[in-house]
Amino acid sequence: MHLSTISTKIQNQERLTPEECLFLLKNAELLDLGDLANQIRYRKNPESRVTFVVDTNPNYTNICNVDCIFCAFYRHEGEAGEYTYSVDAMIENFKRSVANGVTTVLLQGGVNPKIPFEYYVEMVERTVKEVPEVMPHFWSTSEIIGMASVSGLEVREVLKRLWDAGQRTIPGGGAEILSDRVKKKISSLKGTSADWLNVMREAHKIGYKTTATMMYGHLETNEDVVEHLESIRQLQDEYHGFTAFIPWSFKPGNTPLEKIIPHYATPMRYLQMLAISRIYLDNFDHIQASWFSEGKKTGQIALHFGADDFGGTLFEENVHAAANFVNKTNTEEVIQLIQDSGFIPAQRTTLYDVLKVYEKKEAA
Ligand code: SF4
């Protein structure tokens, strides 16, 4: 196998095999990967536009019984610092966000067995009715599996009821690495890779659009990364229900896994993950760079490694903050960061429809 053969395949728009993906991860120079990824980025999104969404990421409960060892966010019931907010309190939170221009609320929490399914349905119904300015981008696959468990309903029925309440998109969290070898070690109570894929498949069948994510930088090997990418590429072939792919790195602070993996993954590894996902996921339109999880400078560089989206403004964020990782921005800064990277910023919706393009100001 040679880089030139793979490069020719990419130029001819041929699909890479898992073996070729692994070869690139193990042998390709980072800048070569970036070049290949950028070719594909401009083929799929020819304009020099980089999209972003004005969003916020609040949490309604931090009580969770899944005990993932990479998580610093959750508490057990009765433990100091645990909380569960009412639907009323969350609706007020969303209304305050609207004043900041938020159009997407990404709402997640722990898997709290004390919350009845009606709470989730009411949250969606009331958001759609009382805060129509925002799109409810709610619940990870783990929470949806938890709803099935407390209600006794099938996952498909849970998703159908949320759809009937007005929900249309689901965030892709909870995947971590879709390799059961790793999942057994970092989140043994969370279910298998097939469980995550099953929730997404059922959602796509109903008509939901979702994102797909990957958290790397812990116990995974390059082989596990290939397995992850292959699983979501296969599922995307079935229903084309994923809007975007979003990789981010593990944040060790305050987590049990910190004892084994005390360091952040490097920016080089991030750029490699981003580029390889753009190259391998030939059926994804959008790859999201993250100013938030990897830092603003790395986020900007990532726009030259295959990403065409800069993520969200994330006005409220508590999960990474629990791991002592805090990054803040505002809409003006996001626009500036994209412009400074050489691109035209465009504000988008959860579904990647463009709302407003910020053409570059002319030089004085
Ligand atoms: S990652 Fe989610 S499911 Fe796992 S412990 Fe944290 S809150 Fe619970």
Please describe the structure with a list of short key phrases separated by commas or semicolons.
364 residues; alpha/beta; TIM Barrel; 4-stranded mixed sheet; 4-stranded parallel sheet; globular
Short summary:
The chain is α/β, with parallel strands linked by helices and 364 residues long.
What is the oligomer described by this structure? single chain
Order of helices and strands: HHHEEHEHEHHEHHEHEHEHHEHHEE
Strand content: 5-15%
Tell me the span between the first and last alpha carbons. 52 Å
Helix count, DSSP H or I runs of 4 or more residues: 15
Helix proportion of residues, in percent? 40-55%
Provide the fold topology:
Elements: H1 3-11, H2 18-27, H3 30-44, E1 49-53, E2 55-56, H4 87-98, E3 104-107, H5 117-130, E4 135-138, H6 141-151, H7 155-165, E5 169-170, H8 180-186, H9 193-206, E6 209-216, H10 222-239, E7 242-249, H11 267-280, E8 286-287, H12 291-294, H13 296-302, E9 309-312, H14 319-322, H15 331-340, E10 344-348, E11 354-357
The chain binds iron/sulfur cluster.
Q: Would you give an account of this structure?
A:
This protein is an alpha/beta fold. The protein has a single domain, classed as Aldolase class I (TIM Barrel, Alpha-Beta Barrel), CATH 3.20.20.70. It is 44% helix and 13% strand. The chain is built from 15 helices and eleven strands. The protein has helices at 3-11, 18-27, 30-44, 87-98, 117-130, 141-151, 155-165, 180-186, 193-206, 222-239, 267-280, 291-294, 296-302, 319-322, 331-340; strands at 49-53, 55-56, 104-107, 135-138, 169-170, 209-216, 242-249, 286-287, 309-312, 344-348, 354-357. It has a four-stranded mixed β-sheet. A four-stranded parallel β-sheet has the order 5-6-7-8. Helix 2 (18-27) packs antiparallel against helix 11 (267-280), helix 4 (87-98) packs parallel to helix 5 and helix 6 packs across helix 9. The N and C termini lie far apart (52 Å). The mean pLDDT is 95.
